[in-house]
What we know:
The structure holds 2 protein chains of 2 kinds.
Chain A: E1 6-11, E2 32-33, E3 37-38, H1 41-49, E4 54-58, H2 64-70, E5 84-88, H3 104-109, H4 112-118, E6 122-127, E7 130-132, H5 136-145, E8 150-156, H6 159-162, E9 166-170, E10 176-181, E11 190-199, H7 200-213, H8 219-229, E12 234-238, E13 243-245, H9 249-258, E14 285-287, E15 292-294, E16 296-298, E17 303-304, E18 307-309, E19 312-313, E20 318-319, E21 324-326, E22 329-330, E23 335-336, E24 341-343, E25 345-347, E26 352-353, E27 358-359, E28 379-381, E29 386-387, E30 392-393, E31 398-400, E32 412-413, E33 418-420
Parallel strand pairs in A: 1-4, 1-6, 4-5, 8-12, 14-17, 15-18, 16-19, 17-20, 18-21, 19-22, 20-23, 21-24, 22-25, 23-26, 24-27, 25-28, 26-29, 27-30, 28-31, 30-32, 31-33
Antiparallel strand pairs in A: 2-3, 6-11, 7-13, 8-11, 9-10, 9-11
Chain B: E1 3-9, E2 29-30, E3 34-35, H1 37-46, E4 51-56, H2 60-66, E5 81-85, H3 100-105, H4 108-112, E6 118-123, E7 126-128, H5 132-142, E8 146-152, E9 164-168, E10 174-179, E11 188-197, H6 198-208, H7 216-222, E12 230-234, E13 239-241, H8 245-254, H9 258-265, E14 280-282, E15 287-289, E16 291-293, E17 298-299, E18 302-304, E19 307-308, E20 313-314, E21 319-321, E22 324-325, E23 330-331, E24 336-338, E25 340-342, E26 347-348, E27 353-355, E28 362-364
Parallel strand pairs in B: 1-4, 1-6, 4-5, 8-12, 14-17, 15-18, 16-19, 17-20, 18-21, 19-22, 20-23, 21-24, 22-25, 23-26, 24-27, 25-28
Antiparallel strand pairs in B: 2-3, 6-11, 7-13, 8-11, 9-10, 9-11
Amino acid sequence: MRKKEMLAMLLAGGQGSRLGILTSDKAKPAVAFGGKYRIIDFPMSNCVNSGLDTVGVLTQYQPLTLNQHIGIGIPWDLDLKNGGAAILAPHVKGGEQGEWYSGTANAIYQNIPYIDKYDPEYVLILSGDHIYKMDYSNMLDFHKKNGCDVTIAVLEVTMEEASRFGIMNADENDKIYEFEEKPEHPKSNLASMGIYIFSWQKLRAALIEDNKVHADSDFGKHIIPMMLNAGEVLYAYRFKDYWKDVGTIESYWAANMELIETVPKFNLYEDFWKIYTNNESQLPQYTGPDALIQKSIVSEGCSILGEVNHSVIGTSVVIEEGAVVRDSIIMENCIIHKGCVIDRCIIDQNTEIGENVIMGTGENIVNEDKPKIYNTGITVIGSNTVVPAGLTIGKNCVIYGKPGPECFEGSKLESGKTVIVEKEAII
Amino acid sequence: MKAIGIIMAGGNSERLKNLCTLRAISAMPVASSFRAIDFSLSNMSNSNIKKVAVIAQFNSRSLQDHLSSAKWWDLGRKNGGLFIFTPFLSNDNSFWFRGTADSIYQNISFLKRSNEPYVIITSGDAIYKLDFHEVLNAHIQKGADITIVCKDLANTDKDVRDFGVLELDGDGRLANFEEKPLEPKSTIASLGMYVIGRSLLIKLLEDAIPNGRYDLVKDVIIRHRKELNVYGYKYEGYWTTLNSVNAYMKANMDFLDPRVRSMLTTQPYIDTKPKDEPPAKYNSSADVRDSLIASGTIVDGSVRHSVLFRKVFVGANSNVENSIIMESSYIGKGCVIKNAIIDKEVVISDGKQVIGEPDNPVVISKGEIV
């Protein structure tokens, strides 16, 4: 293998449990975003736009959607003979039992042979959870200029938010002298974005060392403090642009809606930093004779015959005559039948909403089963779901599977209720 | 599939006026996100043809650009795959292609080095969806030497006098073939697609070209129609060709009809080279009806019965009606665009009007600023 200066390891195995039903059958990086994209497209595209051509994607939780999406990396021009995209799944090692990835650093530790094959100077560690555009080559220049062993990308957050992040305490040159994980009384507002550049030989030694102590080796909890204590050079690299962790239903919804602004904070329409995705469809969208689409973004292959207002529509969605979709996110291949009124809902892919369903109406009562996840009035319909015709569905509701009309007493689902019909077991 | 494919993409057309000065007809943009050749290429690939030659000549740069990678049609293969042939100079050849038959003859090694017993020849500028298995099966079943795919143009808007006209007997065998006759004796037109045995084609070409006969239709098919078994295969689906400005306009508008559009929305799909544009954006004053909109397009104004390609911008208070607007064109504020074809990268300044007749659309050339 030809030597690579830097390769990227993209941690894409997390569930993202606060996204509720959206991540019940796919990992968080595979969740759709901005109509035609999936969350992982942003770090993946950043890699190729930054000139990186070797990306290992580490999967674990529900990897099917992700595997199909990444494939051999064609959408990112990463189908290369030397380098390219590689899916790295947990695996059984010679003569031993298989092992799951038990922590972020442990996942990298288990893939040391993959990295060694390319003999890189530097390794970029990314997570597949965030929406942002970043030129990693600038960060690498910073790393080299400061003679770093580790460079950690940081975001300036407000002091109130700081206690939710890993916080870097740094001197006036941004050299880190202390790291605190979710401190109660933060001393600085430089929050780790989970983006690291390591000089590979240093990281390699640290991973092997830490594996002897912690079976669930983690970058924030173990590797960074350990390297700091060992006197390695760590710098904070300040990132001042748009960065969003779409970790909750509300923040996911809001980040999607931001794209609709006439001049959005996060602009997908810049030619010099394109976001690439695996889209099967290149079809135009058809807007019908009575369609009305305003303040919305609509992806390829849709057929919009009804009304769409302030919404984000994925690829090949059908919205029939007389249906109204407002303030909602509809993911790919959904069908919204005639006469539906969809208000402030998230509808996951391949779902069908029967005729005359009124959704997202009534009082704002938090979800009874999972009040911490569904509490801002947004009703969420899972993927591959069929919602029977004629229902009235409230706010903070969750529907998943193929429930019959008998599951809805009086053709109604009150706000805060959940109907989940498990899929048939696959033997 | 026991056949190799040849796509004749060499054509240029005077009747397409300035739309074709910079591009081959087979590279004409169609239906918001496609190029004409996508249809023939996808039909071949979807019919499991593993080896396809595209023969290009005029303005082949636009075509080369589109075909820069063959993987989008699953033709990026180690064995077989996509071949692009343009005229070249060599010791014994210093000509442009002198005709359709000559263009194949000059690449006869492509035929000689293949093993498949049949060759399927199509044009690169036709819009249609066809499973070539069916044509080949009919060819074999009839024991034909040559099969011509044809269509009855009665009850269509097309004038049969623009095409090669076939007279078929009760069995579907060719009795007579006239190229663009003034007084056609039938309404059945050749669609310029043929199935022929590979060794037979080599033999016919080696007989024709050295004797100064260069045209596939006149010098190969018509000349040998009596001694060979030539059959017609009737194709019933949607078919059109981009042989004039009006035909180009109509072909695009046809895709507003769900019956024609189903060609794109049902499997097997017509594939094209992907462009990574973001979703189309409709701002608060947008009013788009009965139109096709491609990705990357941003609409502030009103659009009716039109076909918009990628990365088009339509400003506020502008009205676009019954028009085609190609990639990266910019329509300012308060413009009126009616019965027009706006080529790529055109800028229509604020308040300008571009208005044509329904049966005679205005054409604004690539890169113009109005």
